[in-house]
Amino acid sequence: MAISSSSLASILQPCWQRGSLKVPNKITSFINFRERSGASNNKMFIILCFQVHFRRIIAAHTNVNLGDCSYLDTCRHMKTCKYVHYELDSTPDVSALMMGAATLPPPKPLKPQHAHYCSEVELGEPQWINCDIRSFRMDILGQFGVIMADPPWHIHMELPYGTMPDDEMRTLNVPALQTDGLIFLWVTGRAMELGRECLELWGYKRVEEIIWVKTNQLQRIIRTGRTGHWLNHSKEHCLVGIKGNPEVNRNIDTDVIVADVRETSRKPDEMYSLIERLSPRTRKVELFARMNNVHAGWMSLGNQLEGVRLVDEGLRARFKAAYPDVEVQPASPPRPSAMKVDSSSSQMRNTFSGGELKAAETQVAEVTAPDAAYASEAKAVNSVIISQ
């Protein structure tokens, strides 16, 4: 939002005490090019502005008389667009000569801040699989507490990505991923009723609907969207369904998200924080994901991901059994090799004897085989121990 210089003066006037300035609050607001210019021309007093400033990008092909570009920083023709665009202005608001070089701190870089319910260490590393969701074996993934999907609905418009027919959406094997939990299904205007139909076919009851109100670079409501047959769409809908009897933190969030638009089809980061607060510390999977969607604690599936990355050993084993020719990254986390187990077993023989040695060997074998899929490998390692 923008505040004029006169309004800003009236707000900050009570904060002056013997020439010092106290910041009334930590809310970050936005001020545009024109109002910043007016503020700098005000000679009544000198203040430090805590707002985020933008400056105009005037290129050789820019026609200032045309005004601001409707798409701003999401414009796909920035190098040739004749409208005005903006970029963050990190220059100090008060010159060093006016404030004194010793009293003016260096400008701090702006960093996006997001409230997370759990730390990334607690959530775990992100995992993803590049696959065709229509034919991928969902049963090897196990059960999830939360599913989020952003399907490529066919909306009868030219899009920069492929779409799926309605019948293929209805027959997706979503039920294999969940018996108790929540599903968050992003839908377009045309697919609103189709999305509700899919939820019912997959075994869910629709209980909520989340609205994402889209804002642009200058924190204004988008008035020229890229979708919509009759009206320009400035919002998106996410249907929330429930299956079974999951544990959910109720009534701690609202059903409206106001956030910036970024890359095509990229959803706001606030959505992931909202989901984590609703269903903390549960397994979560995102369908039709892209690399900009991968998040800590989430499994991502889609045909635009970079290869396969799995860190869960049990899941890696099931995936390799189903798709033996597909390379999985990163390299399998270190487990006791035959050589290391051989060395440790010789030390055990010097320490234990009889039944104690046999129990120790059994313990090593159990550590070596954390998953049933590694039973054959564990058997081979155990034979090495016994042969010594």
Automatic annotation (TrEMBL):
Q: Note the superkingdom of the native organism.
A: Eukaryota
Task: Check the UniProt entry and state the signal peptide residues, or none.
Answer: none
Family matches, as InterPro entries: MT-A70-like, SAM-dependent_MTases_sf
Give positions of region: Disordered. 327-350
Q: Which GO terms describe its cellular component?
A: nucleus; RNA N6-methyladenosine methyltransferase complex
Biological processes per GO annotation: methylation
Molecular functions (GO terms): methyltransferase activity
Pfam families the record matches: MT-A70 (PF05063)
Protein family membership: Belongs to the MT-A70-like family.
> Can you say what this protein is called?
N6-adenosine-methyltransferase MT-A70-like
Species of origin:
Capsicum baccatum (Peruvian pepper)
